[in-house]
Amino acid sequence: MNYKLLPFTFSRISSKEVLVNELGDMMAVPKGTVNAMVTHSIDTKSELYKSLVANFFLTENTIPALIDIYAERLVEKKRFMDDGTSLHIFVLTLRCNQNCIYCQASSQDECCHHKSMTFETMEHSVDLMFKSPSNWLTMEFQGGEPSLEPRLLRYGIELAEEKNKTEHRNMRYVLCTNSINLTDEVLNICKSYNVLISTSLDGPSWLHNKNRGKADSYERVVKGIDKARSVLGHAQVAALMTTSELALDYPEDIVDEYVNLSFSSIFLRALNPYGLASENSNWDTYTARFIAFYKQAFEHILFINKQGTLLIEEFAAIILRKMLTPWCTGFVDLQSPAGIVNSVLVYNYDGYLYASDESRMLAEQGDFSFRIGPVTESYENLIYSKKVREWSNVWSNELLAGCSDCGVRAYCGADPVRNHTTQDDKYGYRPTSLLCKKNKAIIEYLISLIIERKDEVMPIFKTWLQ
Ligand code: SF4
Hints:
The protein is an alpha/beta fold.
């Protein structure tokens, strides 16, 4: 049979060759299969051959019989490009009431009043947001600590609500807060506009307090979470953690803390090299230790799920959604084309539009490479600017050396901002990229679980994707 190869990448994981096509479909096949495919020595009467044809790895016609289905599915996987930017981050202030040892946002003292967004900047920013063609607009408020600016928070939401009377978009609001300052005024705003609270909790009290540089931080955060749950409802409060160097030795304790506080999900987040975190002692060592930490924590999460308690690891759930469902995820850190501009825009307190959250963090370090322009500028001049067009040359991992033939490329993403930050090169060099190392290790680990412990993990993963 004169079959042809369809585009796919492959890698060796566990005892298998793992093939992944452009749709993100994965097949774990016996070693030697790829060689047999490319040398046309595969048995065309075998079940394996039929599966490879049925799953879009081989085709018997120049144009596959099911090309329309293939095209539809590819469109679905890249739907975020059609939809327009949906996540709009508003950095209300750099003021903060904590002293986190890993602060990536270069936050300032609570009393520092010239580091907050003006009401005028908010007006221009909301106008710009509505220029995005997306039907779904998420307004995410960040800082510093955004709850320190309740008037600005209310003003931004009210402007959006007013504008949406004629725009008819699906609005979502998220307040990223350390939960220390969830006053009645703040919770009243959240209740009125269905604002989701995304808080941060790093683990048991001793660890959380050390990370936050305050002796009573844990106690106040837990109080804040309880208060928010009682006013807004349990489901309106989510939490995520940041893995400081100190946290690396305590994966189980951190996971148990989330269970004890009745959270049904946890996001095991690595440190990113911005702000204070950039002073981390050794990034090579940290990355290797984080991967070990992640796997140990993940095993504990699997154990907890097997005991009948639902606990989703959010980073894994995003990757699994890419592997096991036909949908795109909308998660800006694992996208190709990259999340910058395509899926996220940041309206900073300084009156400028940035390409991503990390881009505005870089600006605090004096690097304005990913500042797009003032929010007073027109949407077209900003989004189609020369700067953004130049980034588009390096934001698709399909086109990047090292990524284009990577076996897990369909589940990963491109990150010109991180490449620029760590390698002084937006294109990036994969062999020494620690982000690449971390992503590949975690993706391959999840694939190995599916291959080696399918009966044990798949029922759990399916509940995570519902
Ligand atoms: S960054 Fe690394 S893991 Fe991700 S697609 Fe590129 S080579 Fe693969």
